# Entry
Amino acid sequence: MKFISDRALERLRDGAEIPDLAGTHYRLLERVARGGMGVVYIAEDEKLQRRVALKILDVPGTEGDLATRLIREARVLARLEHPGIVPVHDVGTLADGRVFYTMKFVEGRRLDQYIASVNSVPDRLRLFLRICDAVGFAHARGVLHRDLKPANIMVGPFGEVLVLDWGLAKILREEVLHTTRETDPEATILEKPKPSATASDSTEISAVTEHGTVMGTPGYMSPEQARGDVKNLDARSDIFSLGALLRFLLTGKPEEASAPGGARVDKSLSAICTKATAAAPAERYPNVQELALDVSRYLDGLAVGAHRESVFEKTARFYRRYRFFILLIAAYLVMRVLILLFMHR
Amino acid sequence: MTQNFEPKGGDRFPLTRRSVIEAVRSIDAEEREQALEALCAAYWKPVYKYIRLRWNRPTDAAQDLTQGFFMELLERELLDKFDAQKSRLRTYLRICVDSFVTNEDKAGRRLKRGGNVLHVALDFPSAEEELGATVIDPAAIPSPESLEEFFEKEWVRSLFALAVEDLRELCARKERTRTFHLFEAYDLDGNEKISYEQLAQEYGIAATDVTNALSWARREFRRIALKRLRELCGSEEEFQREARAAFGWDAK
# Structure
């Protein structure tokens, strides 16, 4: 029997990682990244002659938890047609038994890398609102993301924001996997659910999000999610993550109270973060729209629901909002006073 | 769900197999024996090298203990106690080896065993040669983590060596001996200076033929190694974990 040297071990491992795309219409171009479940490649769709992102599991088989999760992720994504969510093109199993799906190839930067180039707070908040828009859409379709963090947000070359990695998504309403014209009047593809499909998919869901299982990212994960209280998770769990994400956008860390260099975050914004990341779900915003509305109100110079202002703060905000007019009126009044003084001399 | 995800490009990946762990617990003596042989084939070298290194035993004592261990595994039905939910088979076996060697020391036994029961050829001189060729940091040896790491690496080496042998046989059956030679020259001999073009010249074929041959051989190697691995695992979860460990997917 041939001795396998350490060098040969590495070569065999490297060679074995390359997926077998025989029988598909994809051609491998480049390895992009490795995640917890598998590898993402850039591939060429030879039929449509376009680049796609190809996500492939490491281990073959369609029966394991990871395969179930990947297939579910693809199905969930396929139902969430939104500019802020990457569209899925195809899902299947390669000749070597590995489950894969292809999605739109997005050239961009992860939020944690991109954010360094955005210095203005209003620009960061507008970015946050686009994330809220995508997450709110998913919630409206009965899907929780459950792993919202900077690494799962991509910002494209034109500033478009995409929420990625729906592998931990929790389906709140089953119809998201079986959208029909009744539940989605805008759907262009009709797909009747198979009689057995509901049962099998329910099994998949319970297998993936079994009660007591902790999945998520510390710092961005809600307390109930960290406890593994899967059954009671609702939109407010994602709102916690969005709150942590907002704090990251303002301070660089999900739990930091002040911005880099010790600069204090505006009290209203800080209050929004605090409310969104409250330990008790009942104390958080009831839905993403309410959170986004508070951020929008801040951007418009209005009072936010999360913070009761003092008279001084109200005045300061009033001044900031109407600074131009106040200065104009002040200038006018000063001019009038000067004219009066000049005339009475 | 499976019916919706048939592999593209042919059914080359069988989905259901009976694992060695299940077969070892079988009431059929023949099936039990075959399973033990499969287990022994994959693990005897790591066990032997581990005894040599961890327990610092001379070659003849280590050989005796290795054979004795696999006999004990069969006689005392130790695999019946293995719970795939609680630990990896590899870790369980390593702990069993430790316990076996300790007990043998206490009893002061040193018997020649296993020669007429185990049907796997235990090529101890080759294992000894490999041990000599393995780079080991002596300073790291006493720590339990490094021993676990050493045992794991030797297990992967053993698994891959078996898969390479299977691939050699497959190539011979399919009259693709040249493919195996190319695979051997490029991937196994670890010659970093050799290129596809040089191999193509050497074998008088086009460079694209070398690419295709290597691609086929790597695919088959992966399939065979995973098939062997699946047979050695007690559950789907264990298989997933072990595959990630064997192919280094967690570390990349």
Q: What stands out?
A: Confidence is low (pLDDT under 50) at residues 179-209 of chain A.
